Amino acid sequence: MEKRLRWGILGTGVVAGELTEALQFTGAPVTMVASRNPEKAKKFAKKYGIPHAAQSYEEVARSGEVDICYIALPHNLHAGMCALCLGEGKHVLCEKPFTVTTAEARAVFEAARAANRFIMEAAWCRFHPLLLEVLDAVRGGLIGEVGAMKADFGIDDVLQNPNHRLLDPDLAGGALLDGGFYPVTLACMLFGSSPQRVQSSRTLSERGVDLYTSAILDYPGGRQALLYASIVHEIPDNAYLYGSKGYVELENFFYCRRATAHLRDGSVRVFERQFECDGYEYETRHVEECIEQGLTQSPILPWEETLRVLEILQQAAAPDSRKD
């Protein structure tokens, strides 16, 4: 790429900081940052050496010094911010979940198509080299015919802060939409299709957000994905892929750097690979490559795949989640 894309950051949370570090690691210029609180933007800019702390999100979207906006804001703001940035001619990388509903996502994708701008959900795990290596090996027959998978994701400190965004229904909080995204994404990556049926059981807070949710996704051929997400329980964030010849354990599957295949013949195969930076560098490089090629969507994470994940999350969140 002769001229690197100039990035604007919308949001100053932990993930925004980690992605900024990855951008700087790859040499991508980060020219502007904005927060709901301008003072937070100033502190973020100082910490990461960003030239300008904007007074508003709109300032970043309209700036001539920004080519692509990275959106790392509460879930309920994603659709509106995507539309704003696209309307100002910017490419967009938007944190997961892309939007709260499939209807919102479709509207955003139509806006991207009309603006002829690239947009992608920031599902970083889809670009992690080790996870992709393991899935390739599984598809190649490492554990035989795959019949099931199980994946858990938990955050155990949310209840310590009564004002936490994940406890706020107005911010589209809850375990399923935030953490459940990862198990559902892994199921989509493994099986490559939509489930025939989604069943779930949820425990809700007094304010109506799910504190923890378990779900079963039934796929053709009797295959199943068993998923669990929680914002109150400390959980090893591991995943297991079960086949006719053995199984694979993925440690911390959503940022996987180690996996072990246990085969029925008694052999064990270990996969290990460290990130170059913090794991976000793979998706940001991919985004820049796509834009350089003139694409409006990623061939690895196309819009239809984002819609597939959102549809499953919506079904699991429905009062009667069973879909026959």
Description of the molecule:
- With 324 residues, the chain is of the alpha/beta class.
- The chain has two domains: 7-125, 3-Layer(aba) Sandwich (Rossmann fold); 129-274 and 309-317, Dihydrodipicolinate Reductase, domain 2.
- It contains ten helices and 14 strands.
- It has helices at 14-25, 38-48, 57-62, 78-87, 102-115, 129-139, 175-178, 181-191, 281-292, 303-317, and strands spanning 7-10, 30-34, 52-53, 68-71, 91-95, 119-122, 146-154, 197-204, 210-219, 223-230, 239-243, 246-251, 258-263, 268-272.
- The protein has an eight-stranded mixed β-sheet with strand order 8-9-10-7-11-12-13-14. A six-stranded parallel β-sheet has the order 3-2-1-4-5-6, with helices on both faces.
- A hairpin with a 3-residue loop joins strand 9 and strand 10 (223-230).
- Helix 5 (102-115) packs antiparallel against helix 10 (303-317) and helix 8 packs across helix 10 (303-317).
- The radius of gyration is 20 Å and the shape is globular.
- The chain starts with 6 loop residues before the first strand and ends in a 7-residue tail after the last helix.
- The mean pLDDT is 96.
